[in-house]
Amino acid sequence: MASQTKPIPALYTVYILRSTVRHASLYIGSTPNPPRRLSQHNGVVRGGAVRTSKGSLRPWEMVGLVSGFPSMVAALKFEWALTNPHLSMHIPSTSRLTVSTQVKANGHPRRPPKSLTSVLSNLHLLLRVPSFACWPLKAHFFAPEVYAAWQKWSTTANEQLRASLPVVTCFGPPPKDTTSTSRATAKEDDIASREEGSEEVESPTPWGIHALPLDYEPMKDYVAKGQGIFEFEQEGDCVVCREAIVSGQGLHALCANGACDGVGHLACWSRQLLPRTGENADDILPVQGKCPKCHGDVQWGDMMTELTLRLRGQKEVEKLLKTKRKRRVAKANIKTVVAT
């Protein structure tokens, strides 16, 4: 399969879309690029879904999403389950929160109408069912009232999410309008910044979906460390079993923490990070744990992303580690721009 030849994506998400005109109108989708996908839903660029194309419901906003899916297929499975919680086999019948009470003309169950409460409650449920509970997922909320509704449900749910599942918020003002007169102001700010000797113009701090990393840039140092260790065969001994690692033979994972160069057999890392006691003692897929060498926290998902980049992502690694040329503008050129 093609997906088996690609590294774990830098970002793949399942998102919740809400109409800013009619808050009761919700839509669930998946994408590796939330800002671009939102522009499609709002008709700014081509694409989007037919169900979000009504001008009376635009503009739409992304009020929450789940990130950390290891592939497009994985995200699509989660998206379908969240869209069809009355049918999803990932939800045990005894735990189902949404039940269809009507049938279509073909005899199939009709999808019940969505509400914010039903979407958030089923999202909470899916994040803790066995099918998805061990995935390196993260929940994000971008609207205060939506996050408040999530908190309200979380406190009354029969079961809680695993403690290691991050739930983060990123609220802020809407992006500034850069049209018409704003463009002139932006140009003046650009010139002033360069006159101060700045090499690059700093854009306003991004927030919400615009603050999400769309590429592997956050992993650059980690990937570079791995390239140095494995290319020069400096693996050493396994940090778990202490046996010598034979370069190029088998799968080996690297600690993600700073200067730690701890390398171990994949199976050894798995045993190290799997919980031995407690309610998760029967898990077969690690989530997180401690590195035996530096004793720092490590995330299984991060380690697998680096491993797949090293083995399958040559183009992605070359692009990531390529030295970027810094743009420098002479003051004489700045004066010319000001004059024009």
From TrEMBL:
UniProt-annotated location(s): Nucleus
Gene Ontology BP annotations: double-strand break repair via homologous recombination
Stored Pfam families: GIY-YIG, SLX1_C
Compositional bias segments (type: Basic and acidic residues): 185-196
Limits of the GIY-YIG domain: 10-92
Keyword set includes Nucleotide-binding: no
Cofactor: a divalent metal cation
General function of this protein: Catalytic subunit of the SLX1-SLX4 structure-specific endonuclease that resolves DNA secondary structures generated during DNA repair and recombination. Has endonuclease activity towards branched DNA substrates, introducing single-strand cuts in duplex DNA close to junctions with ss-DNA.
Subunit structure: Forms a heterodimer with SLX4.
Family: Belongs to the SLX1 family.
Name of the protein in its database record: Structure-specific endonuclease subunit SLX1
Species of the source: Bombardia bombarda
